[in-house]
Amino acid sequence: MENLLRPLIVVGGSVVLTLVIGWATDFLLRKADDRHHDTPLWGLLRRGRIPYQLVLLVALLRGAYDEAQLLESRREGIGQALTLVLIGSAAWLVIRIAAAIVETSYSRYANARAHRDPARVRRVRTQVTLIMRVVSAIVGVVAAASMLLTFPAFRAAGASLLASAGILGIVAGVAAQSTLSNMFAGFQIAFGDMVRIGDTVVVDGEWGTVEEITLTFLTVRTWDERRITMPVSYFTSKPFENWSRGTPQMTGTVFWHVDHTAPVEAMREKLRDILRECPAWDGRAYDLSVTDTTPNTMQVRALVTAKDADDIWTARVAVREQMVRWLAEEHPYALPRVNTADAILPPSRNGHRPSPDGVPHQQRRFHGSARPER
Questions:
Q1: Which whole-number Å values give the CA distances from 327 to 13, 188, 246, 256, 339, in the listed order?
Q2: Edge-to-edge strands, sheet with 298-306
């Protein structure tokens, strides 16, 4: 009877004690979260309640397993398994706690500077994201190494592994050269303020917003909701446009090809009227000028300003559409045309106007009912 009750008391007591401590801890975190609405720390810490309870349960079972006297022949294997689970759950708990602390610090910083310096907030967000990835990777590596060191065979081979670490490091560095370069490029982007999450960029002719930055790759969400994934080393080795760099204010251009007879001054006044009714225009400046001519058309350029990249796009398309519609309705002669009539040439010395092909009209033969004009 004692052999049956002892395991039930040990295992059952560990489970009950884990549930009680876990419930009490979660209750205290909820109370703290209700009292302190200005900080999300306590609510974020509640995300670690599962690894926290798992650490408690495994620690209690690992400490009281000898008293349970259960499966004596497999004591070493079960103890080894409990140790591995304890290390893994502890690493999981450390990552959750670190994420809660880092996220709380970022939230306070963002709330204080969101309106005054949004560019710096995006920069800090990029750095925080990469820091959390690095912390998670370090904790994972340490946990894996700790698990391996629990096996006697790995402890015995530790000396030989350390002796050959130099050669292995050189071989791994050569084999993973591109990966290492991407990782260093990720750190350079995070702390060099080259590009941040939320920045509007143009890469390889594609316009989009930086959606995710990791240590090895970067994702850009285009205006048509496609995702372009590229290595972060691209941004350290090739030129790209960052429309969010510095102040978000931008100046955009709109081009038209119109006839030489187009009313430029009237177009300039129409541009002013269009922008006054366009919410995307920030009112800083506008202009309309003739920038080039061809034998058939002339090029007219409009300059408009807006507070950011999204508004400059909206203003440009609105100006382009409304100006073309206004020209088609009010000044259709100003639209580009293809001349199909013969050119009018000056009269020759004898008073006759030569034909375009060089043959005088008097020498032409007329057939049928056609007669030359008198």
A1: 85, 51, 37, 11, 19
A2: 250-258, 298-306, 286-293
User: Does residue 318 carry a pLDDT above 90?
Assistant: yes
| Pairwise CA distance, residues 290 & 256, whole Å | 10
Q: What is the mean pLDDT of the chain?
A: 76
pLDDT over threshold 60, residue 353? no
When pLDDT is cut at 50, 70 and 90, the band that residue 267 belongs to is very high
E strands in 131-246: 200-203, 206-213, 217-222, 227-231, 241-242
pLDDT (0 to 100) of residue 329: 92
Residue with tokens 């102040």: 247
Residue 174 is predicted with a pLDDT of: 46
Residue 242, CA distances (Å) to 11, 204, 256, 269, 308 in order: 60, 12, 26, 33, 12
Decide if 305 contacts 313 (C-beta within 8 A).
no
How many angstroms separate the CA atoms of 287 and 252, rounded?
11
What is the per-residue burial (b if ≥16 Cβ within 10 Å, else e) of 6-45?
A: eeeebbeebeeebeeebeebeeebeeebeeeeeeebbbbb
Per DSSP, what are the bridge partners of residue 300? 256, 290
CB atoms within 10 A of CB 219: 16
**295 pLDDT exceeds 80?**
yes
Q: Can you tell me whether residue 167 is helix, strand or coil?
A: helix
Q: Angle 75-113/49-68 helices, nearest 10 degrees? A: 160
What whole-number distance in Å separates Cα of residue 135 and Cα of residue 103? Answer: 13
Angstrom distances, CA of residue 282 to CA of 114, 245, 276, 285: 21, 19, 10, 8
Rounded-to-integer distance, Cα 230 and Cα 226, Å: 13
- Nearest 5°: the CA angle 364, 368, 370 is 55
| C-alpha count within 13 angstroms, C-beta hemisphere, residue 338 | 1
- Tokens coding 280: 């995307």
Of 272, 257, 253, which Cα lies nearest the Cα of 327?
257
Q: Which amino acid is at 259?
A: D
First to last CA, the chain: 137
Amino acid identity, residue 354? P
Q: Which two structure tokens, joined as six digits, stand for 189?
A: 């982007």
User: Running DSSP on this structure, what letter comes out for residue 342?
Assistant: P
The residue behind tokens 């007219």 is 300
